[in-house]
């Protein structure tokens, strides 16, 4: 164990020197293996692990879902979703903020990336709320917290990475994220309504016009049908997540072409963005596998499992310690880095405690989602601040009631596992 702690210090030093988390984990894992089994065997393990992980068929879903999101964003479809939601509920007090949460659910089902969803809403929803004299604290907080829904609502890239790292069914993870995602959206909407009635942060928007609402909703209908097709194909067992992702890419391309909103330059940019994001994620997954191999060779995982088995602590007390550690990690790291670092140890421990792997995945995902909002890192808050020019301290103050609601929902998901497991049980 002494060598393990020394390697952790080495890994921390690499991260402090601002080395990307993927390379830091890969180098640390390779150095640890070289010390344990020699340089040549370590290089052989490195070669096999990197190839086996990077060539996994399941990983094909990642570039496809990212490309689907990029196409819809480039084709102006995501902005239209925000406009449609605002047209229906924007006229009531706090309605524009509630509409932003509703649009965030639609975007989450298409984008799969929290930062991309936050950036899209910051560019489209925030100016509209500011035009209607919304307080910047509330408006910027809403676009920040709305983006986190993309972490739980399928097709979440975080859920795909969790499924790959833990060999859990990605299809079941996607379906399990539906109810927690909707529950989170309703909780956020409830916070907005309370704030709007107790303060003057959220005045009414433009008067409701049925014709306008119907008109803008008609433009979004193909996107809704695409969401239903992708999720329905997975839920019904008609297609695997990878096949459903391919269906999503084809559908998003056809929608953009039919609506004549996609330019050739934007198409090239979408492909480039999807490739860059995919390379980053695959590198994280592959290097995490190298680090996991080191843990296996040094029997660190077995030591942790033995400690968990021998402890007299209740299993939910151990789970709460895990959740607390993940929340603290979320204050300083992004969600993919947390998964790659924590899952090689946390997942086997959770399985030893007889937790359901799908349920545990949603709990972990929900926890790292909260980390996107908490200072000092709070990645979504930084994205919103860059887009809206609202100071970070103002955004973090506005996020406090939303973070409290997120913690309440996390507690409900832990206390009542059937909230998460009911839908996957019907598949």
TrEMBL record:
The keyword DNA repair appears for this protein: no
InterPro entries tied to this protein: DctM (IPR010656), TRAP_DctM (IPR004681)
Pfam families: DctM
Topology versus the membrane: Multi-pass membrane protein
GO terms for cellular component: plasma membrane
Subcellular location: Cell inner membrane
MF terms (GO), sorted A to Z: transmembrane transporter activity
Transmembrane segments: 56-74, 105-126, 138-162, 174-195, 216-238, 244-262, 274-296, 316-333, 399-423
Record carries keyword Cell inner membrane: yes
Domain TRAP C4-dicarboxylate transport system permease DctM subunit intervals: 9-419
Predominant location category: membrane
Alphabetized UniProt keyword annotations: Cell inner membrane, Cell membrane, Membrane, Transmembrane, Transmembrane helix, Transport
Role of this protein: Part of the tripartite ATP-independent periplasmic (TRAP) transport system.
NCBIfam families membership: dctM
Subunit composition and interactions: The complex comprises the extracytoplasmic solute receptor protein and the two transmembrane proteins.
Family: Belongs to the TRAP transporter large permease family.
Official protein name in the record: TRAP transporter large permease protein
Organism expressing this protein natively: Polymorphum gilvum (strain LMG 25793 / CGMCC 1.9160 / SL003B-26A1)
Lineage: Bacteria, Pseudomonadati, Pseudomonadota, Alphaproteobacteria, Rhodobacterales
């Amino acid at each position: 164990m002494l060598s393990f702690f020394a390697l952790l210090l080495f890994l921390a030093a690499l991260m402090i020197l601002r080395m990307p988390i993927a390379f830091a984990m890969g180098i640390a894992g390779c150095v640890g293996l070289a010390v344990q089994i020699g340089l040549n065997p370590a290089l052989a393990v490195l070669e096999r692990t990197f190839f086996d992980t990077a060539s996994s068929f399941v990983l094909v879903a990642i570039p496809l879902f990212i490309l689907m999101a990029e196409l819809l964003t480039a084709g102006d479809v995501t902005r239209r979703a925000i406009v449609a939601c605002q047209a229906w509920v924007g006229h009531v007090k706090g309605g524009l903020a509630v509409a932003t949460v509703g649009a965030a659910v639609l975007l989450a089902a298409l984008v799969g990336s929290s930062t991309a969803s936050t950036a899209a809403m910051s560019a489209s929803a925030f100016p509209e709320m500011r035009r209607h004299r919304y307080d910047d604290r509330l408006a910027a907080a809403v676009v920040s917290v709305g983006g986190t829904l993309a972490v739980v609502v399928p097709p979440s890239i975080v859920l795909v990475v969790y499924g790959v790292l833990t060999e859990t069914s990605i299809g079941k993870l996607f379906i399990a994220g539906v109810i927690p995602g909707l529950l989170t959206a309703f909780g956020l909407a409830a916070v907005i309504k309370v704030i709007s009635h107790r303060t003057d942060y959220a005045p009414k928007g433009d008067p409701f016009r049925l014709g306008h609402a119907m008109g803008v909703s008609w433009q979004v209908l193909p996107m809704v049908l695409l969401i239903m097709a992708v999720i329905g194909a997975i839920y019904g067992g008609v297609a695997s997540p990878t096949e459903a992702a391919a269906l999503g890419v084809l559908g998003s391309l056809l929608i953009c072409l039919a609506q004549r909103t996609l330019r050739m330059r934007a198409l090239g940019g979408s492909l480039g963005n999807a490739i860059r994001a995919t390379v980053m994620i695959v590198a994280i997954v592959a290097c995490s596998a190298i680090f996991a191999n080191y843990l296996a060779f040094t029997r660190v995982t077995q030591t942790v499992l033995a400690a968990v088995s021998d402890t007299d602590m209740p299993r939910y007390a151990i789970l709460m310690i895990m959740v607390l550690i993940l929340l603290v990690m979320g204050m300083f790291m992004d969600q993919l880095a947390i998964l790659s670092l924590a899952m090689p140890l946390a997942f086997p421990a959770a399985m030893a405690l007889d937790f359901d792997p799908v349920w545990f995945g949603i709990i972990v995902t929900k926890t790292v989602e909260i980390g996107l909002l908490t200072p000092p890192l709070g990645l979504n808050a930084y994205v919103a601040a860059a887009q809206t020019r609202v100071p970070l301290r103002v955004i973090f103050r506005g996020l406090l009631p939303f973070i409290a609601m997120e913690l309440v929902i996390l507690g409900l998901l832990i206390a009542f596992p059937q909230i998460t497991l009911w839908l996957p049980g019907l598949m």
